[in-house]
Every structure is written in structure tokens, then in C-alpha cells.
Amino acid sequence: MAIGDQVTATGHVQLGELLLGRGTPYRWRSLTGWEDLPALDSGSTPRPAAHGDILGRLLAQSRVVTLDDIVIRARPAELGAVMQQLGDATAVRDHEIPLVVQLDDRGPLLAWVRVTARSVPVGRGYTVGTITGAAVQFTASDPRRYELLEHTARAGLPADEPGLDWNTGEDLLDAGLDWATAANVDGGLAFGVPGSTGTLTARNAGNAPAHPIVEFRGPVSMPSLTNLGTGDTLEYDLDLAVGDVLVVDTGEGTATLNSTASRLYTASVRSVPETTFTLVPGTADMAFRAAPGSSDPAASVAVRWRSAYW
């Protein structure tokens, strides 16, 4: 099922496959840490002989989100099943699962989280199917929030346009241009199939940098992708055969060939560290290139990303 497919109204919170909010047995009254900035680590250092600091980077820590004051209501005969669903969704895991929250008309946003705390008070109301004051805490190792829709932009290697054909084929004589495109029809000139510029455009509509996933597909030698705005380049000194796919996950800092073998060691001296290749808010134009002589039209690059928000 698609991520956040059950979120249809404001106040809905979906953790994995469990929906909380209106129309469900789980109603909540307080959400903290979702709209807040995460805690920040500052790289600034005091000036040794002057007032103030030498400005450094601000790096966000994990985002901690707490869904508080949850009221759980069900028929007494159904409360066990309702509590089992909550327990399954909030179990201890080594991996992160999607948390989707929609608070207003801006629509839902996504974070990847693990449940790090759960509190379910058991009182007299339990016997009649009502539990009050429950809470669940989530921790997202990536503090950014993302739109649900994943975008994809593709490009092939640069290719020239064929242009006008000045030869009509009459005994190799140059008889001029043929203006007709059909019998007895003056249809204008045919300029041939448009060529490829080898460029693509990605737009991050959020306010935080996004780490894209880049897929190079063969046949191509020394594939590279350059952000024309920043000059940052990903380039790998290897040959990709037909059917080969090199997937570069800039968020994780990996480069994997055919889903099995790491090829990080093939990064060229021009290539930036994978984790520094980001899409800042706004529009980014990127160019797909390869080694001289590598111009197979079947080669391609695909860039996948979600707009990111603090």
C-alpha cells in the first residue's frame, strides 16, 4: 500500500498501517515536536581575539515527536483487538517506518521514525472500553519532513539534431529542399527528430535541502551528473553494460551496482562526497555526461527526490 494512503483529513496521523485521529478508535489532543525545529548542533567557535564567534554550520539532530493525551475508545468486547493493533504498530524495531501527519490545508508530510516510548495507563475506564492519557513518542534519525509525492526527472546523453536533409536522393544530385510532407501538400520543412541536451531539472519546493537518489543506466562509460548551479558532480570511473544500474543514494552515501555490489571506490577525483550532493530549495538544472565516445542513446540517468521541509 502507498505511504500515507489512509490520511484523508486534518488531524489524521498514520504510523505504518495504523491510522489515528477522527473516525478511528484513537483520538489525540496534543502533538509536540512536529512543527518545531529539531535541536541544532552549532559549529561556531569563539573568536580568539575579538567579540563573538567564527560562524560555523548548523546541523540538525534527530527529530523527537510525541503524540500525547490519546483517548482510546472501543466496545469492551473489541478493546483487546484495538489495543493489539496499537501494540503491533508501536512495537520495538531496528528499522524506521513511515509516519504521516496532516495538520492543516498544506497537506500531509512524511517522516521516517522508530517508536522510542509508549505509555498506556490502565484504570477503571479500561473495563468499559475507554483509555485516557496514552502517549507515543517517535524519533526520526532524519529530522526533515517530506512531501508524499516522489518526483522523478530523466535525461539521456547529449545528442545532435539531424537537421535538414538537403539531398532529395535523385542520382546523388542536390536538388534543394523538399517542402512537401505528403502528396500535393505543402506541409513545411521537416527538421528531423529533436536531439537531446543531456540536461534535466529538479525542483525542491520545500525549505530544507533534499538528498536525491541518482540512477545511472548503461550502456555508458564514466557516467557523471553535475549540478549546474553549484558545480557539484557525481562521477564514477566504471563501465555500465546494457541492463546495468548504478544507484547512488546521496542520503546514505552509497553507490551500488545492480543492488548488490558497492562501487563507491570508483568515484573519480572530480566527484564530491555523495552526502554533500543535495537539492537546495528551488530549481536545480543538472547535466548528464559520459566519457568521450560514450554516446549510446540507450544510456540514461534518473533523479528521484521528495521536497523537504524543516
UniProtKB/TrEMBL annotation:
The cross-references to Pfam families, in alphabetical order and at most eight, read: SPP1_Dit (PF22768)
Residue ranges annotated for the Siphovirus-type tail component C-terminal domain, each copy included: 206-308
Annotated InterPro entries:
Siphovirus-type_tail_C
Protein name from the UniProt record: Phage tail family protein
Provenance organism: Streptomyces malaysiensis subsp. samsunensis
